[in-house]
Design brief:
Shape: globular
Number of strands: 14
Helix content: 10-25%
Largest sheet: 10 strands, mixed
Order of helices and strands: HEEHEEEEEEEEEEEE
Number of helices: 2
Distance between the termini: 50 Å
Strand content: over 45%
């Protein structure tokens, strides 16, 4: 067996062991592959009698401010208290609180404070991802221009799903600013919100 043949055989064996890439490709290692959080939103606007007005779908991404909260959740330092969804406007906010413009806040039943801009009908399900669904009633003629999902946490001494006081509230999980003009609403119109969060 010649020296040249031995060198070729070694190279061929190395390619079988480590594999090879075509031009323009780079091999991925475990350190190069990250976990991404995707949020898909669907806002449907209806008249009070159920007549459809408009449908809007868009995507958003994981908010960097939630990094610390998520790591504490995964390490059991926190447990989830509840989810909420916020709908807001840049010039005029779509709901009212004590007669003043405010964001519309969709909350899980029993987790709100009874404020007039809170809607305690937010439900959670897991059809191929985490899905949040609920409905808010607009109180102003305006455009919804930003949306967020938020998490509230209890300390790990509290059982998951239980109420707790005090708690860590308002951590933004996903969110986005809508392409202008946003979603137009009128007083009394219903905004059906569906948010699907996936990991990849």
């Amino acid at each position: 067996m010649t020296k040249k043949f031995i060198i070729i055989l070694c190279l061929a064996t190395s390619m079988l062991v480590v594999g090879f890439t075509t031009a323009g490709e780079e091999p991925q290692s475990g350190l190069d592959v990250g976990i991404q959080v995707h949020g898909h939103w669907k806002l449907e606007v209806f008249e009070a009698d159920g007549t459809p007005v408009s449908v809007h779908e868009f995507d958003n991404a994981f908010d960097s401010n939630a990094n610390v909260a998520l790591s504490r959740l995964l390490s059991r330092y926190f447990v989830v208290k509840n989810w909420s969804v916020l709908l807001d406007g840049s010039t005029l906010r779509p709901c009212l609180q004590a007669g003043s413009p405010a964001s519309c806040v969709l909350m899980e039943p029993g987790t709100g404070s009874g404020l007039s801009n809170e809607f305690d009908n937010l439900t959670l399900s897991t059809p191929g991802g985490l899905q949040l669904s609920g409905t808010a009633t607009a109180a102003a003629t305006t455009n919804i221009t930003s949306v967020t999902t938020t998490l509230s946490f209890c300390n790990n001494t509290v059982p998951p799903g239980a109420n707790c006081t005090p708690y860590h509230s308002g951590t933004v999980f996903t969110g986005t600013t809508l392409t202008p003009p946003g979603v137009a609403v009128l007083p009394g119109q219903l905004v059906q919100v569906t948010v699907t969060i996936n990991f990849s």
